[in-house]
User: Which sequence fits this backbone?
């Protein structure tokens, strides 16, 4: 560590303008971005910053009534102007209350990070137009990106902004489950008061700039760091690997942990941290990293799976032979013999690229040292895992680390891994000052994990009657420079690559391969979406070769309660895949007929197609324990404290878990006080991933609720059939004609500070997989099937998705609106993966080269909820978070095949790839040439 | 240092002493990345002289600081349809409300949405400096990827477009990989002026995002001149008419696809013009 301490004063002028109807004077640089002035100088944190480049629209405000990106407006340009932020909409526009209610009722806010921008953009439209058309709404919000909702609920909310509203905000005792309850944290997402990672700035906080490798692989040497610190007033310290008191190593799976906080001699990917510069916020902002004393010597990088697997390839990690991080294997029956004996065998190779999570909230947070403890308030999906890693890095006990999760502006898997936390923790630990860090968009894209690129080869065989007999699947995943969730991807894919079908003879082999690329980690589905792209396209080919309708082929082979899965598990109950396909059957016939009619009538170049794909996905960790513990307390005021640590990343666990708990306790939902996943006050509910929070934490909440109910009845000496009424400061037990009231104010408090506490832990029953991958990897699976209707421009290769119909077996729909939100958002991400999203490390580290779907790209989504109850889940519920994304891409790819008569083997199916496929098929004299 | 002069002469005098021009900020700020601005910044958004659109008998003047939203909102002759269509495709509404026509030209991105329509309008730019004023055709103004002939002391004050009455029709097509907020893979603008015999008196076609600078397809224009004005014009377009394009491979598309797509878009934009005239 190298330290110094002086400050600088930047050139500022005093500017006068009006914000939300109030005249303000601000001393600031006139070239400062308006977004920064609003947030940092005026404390208007409702205006979010997602990219600082006008690419995402999160920072939209009204400038003299017109929507603008406040990150692109110079402070000097608003002198004497009127600015309206989300905080001022209510007083500006009389219809705003209704618009906000409409957002809440329709579930238009999920994580909420884009919501202020959406509301501002929509308000500008509604001030101009009484009843806008759908296209006008799309145009108006087209400049604001959303990664969670798939836009359709936002569009509906704006279209119905003037309709009379009656959102359901409460539920009577025992009536919460199944209700379209407005999300409990919805109001603060819709009024801009939600606190995300970047939204709280402790007084006197220092800032961090991380120095990152500009090369995929490089040796580096530092210059004189002490001189650098001395020469820059306002810079307090530079930290490098030598400053780490504990282990310079972290990783989400302890056995494979390999990622240093700072690289020591050689960087293994572009964007890897080598040093952190800490100082006064304005000095750090002004710092040009090019002036940092470090010299780089580029080394030849391994950028592809092939290069990494070459016999003479250098090792990315000395202890990982052949650059293979881990292998996955599931084998059942005799796949070679079955394929030899099958009437029909098809094969194919499929490839996918890096996919960026592109949540609109870049990673952010702050840390402060409190005595010999460190507190970190940041956006995260996994507070207790963060706690363990930070403890190891600082060389302190986990109990000395407190993680306070903020609201998360989208996660999708990448906020399971550490980002800002080690840097702010280390700096705050050494300097004993609060330290804050907000990733820039470029930094976020270049340094955080991605979806694994996959290269998959598969063969599948069936008998003439359409019975699936065998599948042979092999896949390599580019896991990048560090392990992250590579082992999970390699383990999950073989378990799922059969799809939700009975496949008696099966072999699936996977490898996670290290390269000098961005670490690939968890992204909604842990590799299963990639596997489904191969498998569902292959099964379409098989159906065609058998001469069987593609949907009927899937119905015929669908798993049921008694057929074993590829790991030999017989699920017994809750296998709703056939029901999903059957729900789609009438829509499939209609859509196919409509597409045929269109194609018969249409002149080239437009052709329509319809595609279908199925999905299954195990809820929770694969054959590993993943307990959740929920604590509840009856307070003296008669209210219920609910400590539920499932981090709500927009999917709605705050609401879902409470709905479950309320019905288990049989209490009205508005009696609950929610406590967050703060590790100092709430037990571990595990990570928000693996579609486990509804299923696992929900079940723990159900158990805790039931236990608290029993405890209350014991306290009041009521029988199990009695009704509990929760009053102010008392509870009343009602049994037939008898009422018995217990005053709570006089009762003693337990060690948690409650009159009564209940705590329950749930860990779904699984078993380890044997050497052939046989066993019980999950206690429950979610099932689903999507049908995509698309239109291809054969000449340009562009694909427009017209509609997606999504049937999902969710066991029990705890909150149908939130489930639809997961499905629609999953469809949007699946569409992006199918048609436009691919990240190339080193290029396109922004949101205009890396494209995610905009409001004009996501079609209407019709959700069909099937409730085939899980015997284990709370009220029968299963997960939906990842399930929703898996079938979309293969359904779209199958629809493209249906339209053009040729297969896309590499996603995304960008216009040039589709056009090349059409041309190749034409040369071969393809069916639609 | 930051200056926000009120008159063009003040601005040009200030710029003569050095500095960078800031207008709508839609290219200025993204170019900064996460570094703060340094040096002298001359903000031209308070110069009323370079704002707004004025229509004269034989030309239309668009002030350099006119935003895309203003261009969308202003009723203009049909030969401006391509420009107005392009204006609707510049980023999202937020960008259209701030981004200016001069900024689009001076930033000189090969994929600048405004350039092909201005090329087919035979637009000129008026550059103002303390030393005086000069006019340059847009086709001569942009000379490379992010390169123009603008001297650092000049302000692009006005875009001047020759226009007599309501002659000609135009259209614009942009191809990108998503609906909103997208940088073109290829884009095409065309302007056709019919004569009184139902033939094409004059044709102008320009392609953007397929070369370092957007290109007029003059060989094609010659072929189109004299052709019957109506459906079927697309069939006159041959691949060799696009020979002056030199597209690159990038994250958006490979070069070969761009050439292929540009040909298609040229055919379609001509059919669109022909159809809109009918």
Assistant:
């Amino acid at each position: 560590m190298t330290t110094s301490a002086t400050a600088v004063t930047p050139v500022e002028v005093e500017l006068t303008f009006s914000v939300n109807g109030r005249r303000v004077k601000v001393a600031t640089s006139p070239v400062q971005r308006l977004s920064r002035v609003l947030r940092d100088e005026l404390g208007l944190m409702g205006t979010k910053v997602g990219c600082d480049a006008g690419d995402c629209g999160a920072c939209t405000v009204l400038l003299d009534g017109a929507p603008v990106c406040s990150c692109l407006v110079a402070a000097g340009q608003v002198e004497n102007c009127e600015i309206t932020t989300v905080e001022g909409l209510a007083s500006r526009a009389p219809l705003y209350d209704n618009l906000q209610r409409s957002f809440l009722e329709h579930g238009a806010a999920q994580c909420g990070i884009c919501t202020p921008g959406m509301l501002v953009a929509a308000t500008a439209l509604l001030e101009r137009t009484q009843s806008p058309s759908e296209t006008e709404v799309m145009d108006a919000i087209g400049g604001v990106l959303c990664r969670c909702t798939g836009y359709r609920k936002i569009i509906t909310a704006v279209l119905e902004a003037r309709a009379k509203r009656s959102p359901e905000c409460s539920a009577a005792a025992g009536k919460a489950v199944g209700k379209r309850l407005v999300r409990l944290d919805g109001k603060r997402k819709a009024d801009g008061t939600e606190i995300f990672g970047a939204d709280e700035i402790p007084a006197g906080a220092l800032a961090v700039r991380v120095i990152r490798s500009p090369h995929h692989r490089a040796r580096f040497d530092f210059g004189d760091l002490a001189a650098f610190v001395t020469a820059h007033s306002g810079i307090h310290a530079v930290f490098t690997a030598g400053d780490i008191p504990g282990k310079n190593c972290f990783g989400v799976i302890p056995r494979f942990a390999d990622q240093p906080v700072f690289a020591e001699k050689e960087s293994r990917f572009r964007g890897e941290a080598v040093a952190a510069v800490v100082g006064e916020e304005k000095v750090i902002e002004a710092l040009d990293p090019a002036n940092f004393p470090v010299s780089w010597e580029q080394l030849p990088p391994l950028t592809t799976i092939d290069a990494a697997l070459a016999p003479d390839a250098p090792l990315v990690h000395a202890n990982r032979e052949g650059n293979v991080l881990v292998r996955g294997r599931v084998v059942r029956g005799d796949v070679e013999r079955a394929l030899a004996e099958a009437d029909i065998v098809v094969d194919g190779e499929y490839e996918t690229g890096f996919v960026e999570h592109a949540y609109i909230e870049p990673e952010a947070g702050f840390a402060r040292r409190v005595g010999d403890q460190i507190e970190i308030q940041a956006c995260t999906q996994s507070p207790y895992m963060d706690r363990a890693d930070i403890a190891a890095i600082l060389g302190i006990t986990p109990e000395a680390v407190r993680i306070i999760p903020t609201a998360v502006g989208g996660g999708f898997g990448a906020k399971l891994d550490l980002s800002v936390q080690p840097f702010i923790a280390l700096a705050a630990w050494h300097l004993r000052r609060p330290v804050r860090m907000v990733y820039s968009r470029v930094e976020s894209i270049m340094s955080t994990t991605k979806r694994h690129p996959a290269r998959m080869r598969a063969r599948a065989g069936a008998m003439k009657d359409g019975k699936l007999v065998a599948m042979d699947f092999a896949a390599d995943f580019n896991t990048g420079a560090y392990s992250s969730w590579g082992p999970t991807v390699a383990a999950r894919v073989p378990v799922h690559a059969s799809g939700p079908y009975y496949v008696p003879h099966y072999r699936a082999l996977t490898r996670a391969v290290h390269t000098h690329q961005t670490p690939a980690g968890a992204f909604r589905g842990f590799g299963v979406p990639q596997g489904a792209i191969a498998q569902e396209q292959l099964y379409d080919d098989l159906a065609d070769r058998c001469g069987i309708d593609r949907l009927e082929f899937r119905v015929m082979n669908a798993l049921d309660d008694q057929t074993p899965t590829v790991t030999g598990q017989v699920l017994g109950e809750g296998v709703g895949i056939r029901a999903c396909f059957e729900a789609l059957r009438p829509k499939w016939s209609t859509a196919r007929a409509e597409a045929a009619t269109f194609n018969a009538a249409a002149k080239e170049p437009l052709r329509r197609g319809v595609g279908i794909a199925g999905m299954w996905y195990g809820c929770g960790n694969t054959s590993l324990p993943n307990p959740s513990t929920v604590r509840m307390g009856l307070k003296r005021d008669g209210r219920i404290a609910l400590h539920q640590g499932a981090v709500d990343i927009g999917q709605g666990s705050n609401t879902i878990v409470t709905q479950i708990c309320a019905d288990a306790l049989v209490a009205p939902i508005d009696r609950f006080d929610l406590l967050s996943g703060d590790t100092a006050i709430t037990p571990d509910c595990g990570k928000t991933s693996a579609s486990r929070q509804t299923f696992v934490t929900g079940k723990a909440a159900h158990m805790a609720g039931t236990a608290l109910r029993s405890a209350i009845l014991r306290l009041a000496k009521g029988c199990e059939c009695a009704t509990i009424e929760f009053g102010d400061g008392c509870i009343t037990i009602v049994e037939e004609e008898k009422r018995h009231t217990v005053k709570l104010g006089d009762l003693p408090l337990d060690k948690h500070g409650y009159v009564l506490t209940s705590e329950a832990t749930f860990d779904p029953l699984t078993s380890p997989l044997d050497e052939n991958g046989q066993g019980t990897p999950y206690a429950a699976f979610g099932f689903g099937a999507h049908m995509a209707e698309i239109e291809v421009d054969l000449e340009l290769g562009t694909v427009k998705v017209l509609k997606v119909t999504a049937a999902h077996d969710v066991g029990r729909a705890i909150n149908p609106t939130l489930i639809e939100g997961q499905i629609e958002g999953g469809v949007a991400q699946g569409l992006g993966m199918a048609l436009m999203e691919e990240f190339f490390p080193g290029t396109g580290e922004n949101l205009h080269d890396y494209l995610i779907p905009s409001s004009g790209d996501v079609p209407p989504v019709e959700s069909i909820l099937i409730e085939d109850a899980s015997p284990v889940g709370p009220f029968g519920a299963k997960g939906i978070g990842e399930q929703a994304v898996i079938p979309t891409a293969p359904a779209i790819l199958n629809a493209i095949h249906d339209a053009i008569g040729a297969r896309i083997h590499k996603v995304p199916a960008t216009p040039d790839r589709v056009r090349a496929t059409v041309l190749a098929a034409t040369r071969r004299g393809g069916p639609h040439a | 240092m930051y200056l926000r002069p009120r008159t063009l002469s003040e601005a040009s005098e200030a710029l003569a002493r050095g500095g960078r021009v800031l207008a709508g900020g839609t290219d200025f700020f993204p170019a900064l990345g996460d570094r703060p601005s340094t040096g002298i910044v001359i903000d031209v958004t308070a110069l009323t002289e370079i704002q707004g659109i004025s229509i004269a008998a034989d030309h239309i003047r668009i002030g350099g600081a006119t935003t895309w939203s203003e261009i969308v909102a202003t009723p203009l002759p049909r030969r401006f349809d391509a420009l107005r269509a392009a204006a609707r495709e510049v980023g999202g509404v937020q960008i259209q409300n701030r981004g200016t026509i001069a900024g689009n030209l001076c930033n000189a991105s090969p994929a600048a949405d405004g350039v092909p329509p201005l090329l087919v309008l035979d637009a000129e730019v008026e550059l103002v400096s303390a030393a005086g004023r000069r006019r340059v055709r847009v086709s001569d103004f942009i000379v490379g990827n992010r390169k123009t002939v603008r001297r650092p002391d000049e302000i692009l004050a006005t875009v001047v477009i020759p226009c007599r009455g309501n002659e000609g029709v135009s259209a614009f097509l942009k191809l990108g990989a998503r609906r909103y907020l997208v940088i073109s893979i290829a884009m095409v603008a065309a302007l056709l002026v019919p004569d009184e015999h139902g033939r094409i008196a004059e044709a102008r076609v320009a392609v953007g995002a397929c070369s370092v600078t957007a290109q007029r397809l003059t060989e094609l224009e010659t072929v189109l001149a004299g052709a019957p004005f109506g459906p079927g014009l697309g069939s006159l377009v041959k691949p060799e008419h696009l020979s002056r394009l030199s597209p690159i491979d990038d994250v958006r598309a490979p070069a070969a696809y761009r050439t292929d797509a540009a040909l298609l878009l040229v055919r379609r934009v001509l059919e669109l013009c022909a159809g809109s005239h009918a």
Summary: Residues 577-601 of chain A form the longest helix (25 residues).
